[in-house]
Amino acid sequence: MGIRLGGLLCRPILCTQETMADIVFLVDGSASIGLENFQQIREFVSLLIGNLEVAADRIRIGLVQYSDTPHTEFSLNTYQNKEDILRYIQNLRYKTGGTFTGQGLEFMLKQHFVETAGSRAQQSVPQIAIIITGGESQDEVGSQAQELRQRGIKIFTIGIKDAKETLLRQIASEPYDQHIYSVSDFAALQGISQSVIRKVCTTVEETLKEIIQIKYEKIISSRCNETAQADIVLLVDSSGSIGASDFEEVRKFLHAFVDSFNLKPDKVRVGLAQFSDRPYQEFLIGDYLDKTDLHQKLNGLIYRRGGTNTGQALTFIRENYFSLARKSVPGIAIVITDGESNDDMEEPSRRLRNLGVFIFVIRLGMGNMEKLRAIANIPQEEFLFSIDSYQELQGLKESLRNKVCFTVLLQSEGNRFYLLCFPFLVFMGLLNVNLKINTNQNLP
């Protein structure tokens, strides 16, 4: 079913019948718009809404008109069907007056994106604001827009005629090319309607994925702290190609990474080896369970310098670390290297994986990516990380920890953990990926 508007049949596009979102329009009704142009805004808003699947349990719509002061036309929970909304907009009264966009933004945040007005933010429903303005604001907008964005509300700005790009950028969410529209006159609004709807629908889907990803990671983090059992070996490249200053970045990362786990004899245990021309045993799995002692040991790590024999180091941790690991818990190796090895890495990594050890690899800088692909477990998008500089290493901690935790929990808790995460995996498109993690654990 579609809605006929001015001879045009509007059917839902892109946003599926299952799409859920709370969308509030903030419409400029100031004197600078003019009555004839305000009618163009009415038709544009109606056209956008006509392409959405409006219902109390799907997409909800709210509308604020602003000039000297903002005014609630209707809230997110006022109307439950599209026809009533379109009928209201056809008869929308033009306010006239000044242009106080900042007040309108603050009003929208405090009076519309709240539970009493129908917002479902607490239920993890994406929150979208669409701002339509025709000129410069007579008040400040930056802080109000920032507060909206900090609350997780995605803001689209549509500037008409005299609305400057600087104003639109102050308000809109990033990336700007996805959230800002600027047209030369009011008649041109109709021409951007399909593009606006496409981007709104895409933003809704991406926002929901972000929300679900955060919840999913919280489940993993909590479960990891409570129940995870693993023997983790960190294998750190300490060769001359690393450099002393970059080695300090690696040291900082090691501190943060080990600190994120619940280290206990029956939970997570860690060991660490360095390598350059040859491997160096720093401490074996489980040698340090007290974090204070562990951090002191990390502070005392010596930067070794020399060549890079990664294959020899992989053999070393297989023979001296994982041979002493618990057989009943997952083994994890995390290799941190710039990727340039003087010896063969493929056969040693295959033999390590054959023990059931999962190998994560962090490539630092511009090292040989193809050789490192032969080390990491598959799928490589889950087990192989690549960053351009050592300064970026600190930003990997959470992502690496979550992927290590997921791998560990999936192996140790099996179907129980998989079923817990199943809805998240399906929505995020991770179902097939994580099946591969499970089935390819011992691939040669």
Automatic annotation (TrEMBL):
InterPro entries documented for this protein: ECM_Assembly_Org, VWF_A, vWFA_dom_sf
Keywords for the protein's UniProt record, in alphabetical order: Collagen, Glycoprotein, Membrane, Repeat, Secreted, Signal, Transmembrane, Transmembrane helix
Domain of life: Eukaryota
Domain VWFA, first and last residues per copy: 22-196, 231-404
GO cellular component: a single term: collagen trimer
Localization in the cell: Secreted, Extracellular space
Positions of transmembrane segments: 417-435
Protein name (database record): VWFA domain-containing protein
Organism: Cyprinus carpio
